[in-house]
Amino acid sequence: MKKAIAEFIGTFALVLFGCGAAVIGGMGAGATAIDVLGISFAFGLAIVAMAYGIGPVSGCHVNPAVSFGVLLAGRMSVSDFIRYAIAQCAGAIAGAAVLYLILSGKASGWNGGLGQNGWGAGYLGQYGMVSAFVFEAVATFLFLVCILGVTQKGAPAHLAGLAIGLTLVVIHIVGINVTGVSVNPARSLGPALIGAGANAGAMAQLWLFIVAPLVGAAAAGIMFKSGLLAADDPDA
Q: What is the per-residue pLDDT across 84-97, written as a single tens digit (0 to 9) for each?
């Protein structure tokens, strides 16, 4: 139960702060508006904060794709994966709901957006579906390479949270204009579900932000399980 609560809180914080930066910060004007770099750091620093806050309890996955990669790497059980994924999705939905509640108090200028992920005509850089899928799968793979690498035996554990957070920052810097960046099915689910009334298209495109991250995470998990990316045991 402690692990599930920790994952709920961590994913809640990621969605509230990350998507909040994109929507609330992005609605400013001139010097008050934040750009791609600011949004990228909001997501990354949220992960850093939660890694040190809840990491000792649950490992701070806050992402079903991360948990899936950890599962396939042989580092968690199926039952734990299911509990983690449920808690993460619930936390993301709650985070999006709180963000919606905050934004609904704005007198004008809010169009109902909650930082939903997407692709195609009218969405940010207007990249196609193939571009979106490739980015999400590859970015998630590289994200899991970092996570599984810095959390394996012999890695400097005290720097893991910082390394993971900064990796998420660079993923966002590159990919915000492609998909808004998911690499996390829960992060996509929360805003898409809560903001469905204002953006029905986000729900229709949600499948990609579930499938592509899981594909990328699976590839990384299998590579670590097989030993291809696992560090050599100095005691062996």
A: 999 999 999 999 99
Q: pLDDT band for position 196 (50/70/90)?
A: confident
Give whole-number Cα distances, 180 to 51, 172, 202, in Å. Answer: 22, 8, 11
CB-based contact 192:117 (threshold 8 Å): yes
Q: What's the topology of domain 2-226?
A: Glycerol uptake facilitator protein (1.20.1080)
Distances (CA, A) of 75 to 70, 72, 139, 155, 168: 5, 7, 21, 15, 22
pTM above 0.85, yes or no: yes
Q: Is 154 left (phi over 0), alpha (psi -120 to 50) or beta?
A: left
Q: Is the CB of residue 144 less than 8 Å from the CB of residue 217?
A: yes
Instruction: Return the pLDDT at 234.
Output: 55
- Counting residues of the chain whose pLDDT is more than 70, the rounded percentage is 95
- The rounded distance, in Å, linking the Cα atoms of 78 and 73 is 12
Structure tokens of 3?
């692990």
Concatenating the DSSP letter of every residue in 133-200 gives: HHHHHHHHHHHHHHHHHHTSTTS-GGGHHHHHHHHHHHHHHHHHHHHS--S-HHHHHHHHHHTTTT-H
With 0-12 / 13-18 / 19 or more C-beta atoms within 10 angstroms meaning exposed / middle / buried, residue 192 is buried
